[in-house]
User: What shape does this take?
Amino acid sequence: MLSRSLLRSTLSAAKANTRVRTFKQEDQPRLRIGSTAPDFKVDTTEGPIEFHKWIGDSWTVFFSHPADFTPVCTTELGAFAALKDEFSKRNVKLIGLSAEGVDSHKAWIKDIEDITPGLKTFSFPIIADTDREVSFLYDMVDEEGFKNLNGGIVQTIRSVYVIDPSKKIRITFTYPPSCGRNSAEVLRVIDALQLADKKGVVTPIDWTAGKDVIIPPTVSNEDAKKKFGEFDEVKPYLRYTKV
Assistant: This one.
């Protein structure tokens, strides 16, 4: 197995030779909730993928990392990998990204497996974004990193995109490199989104599965009675029910 120092020196040489175009802010997609997630072709630890084809009819959690062999990211990838069965129950695929190569990612995975209690096998792909194309498409860099996209040190920030089967972006999170993510929160918002899509409800502050939900104001009391049965009207615009 290549040493980490050799992997990094090989990566640095590769980066110097993989620049394919100049990154300009005016060319960057404006991604909002409801935008179609940009498609791309890329190499990963599980082989080449076309992103939209890879998503298929699943939901997807797509998240980036500042670099391989970084402490916070190692704990994050381990936590998500340990919850893979929970995501699978919700028809959710996981995919990570770091702006380093596949060999580096594969070496890093061994560390992730070592430090994560109960994790025997890491089992979702990590994108090798050595040319920074995907980081640019999804704006996965901070202000200083964007200035360096065309040459210099670039570390992706901790971006998270929840993408539905129609390839629409449903939720985004952005964390600075110093702050670890909350895997339970990602599961919680997926539960909320899927319930809203299925039942036509919205969820209140701190909602978790099994708690009361809110009937949207666009639904009349008469229709709410037909659809949900009993409900609690706290205010004319705030009505709680169970699903």
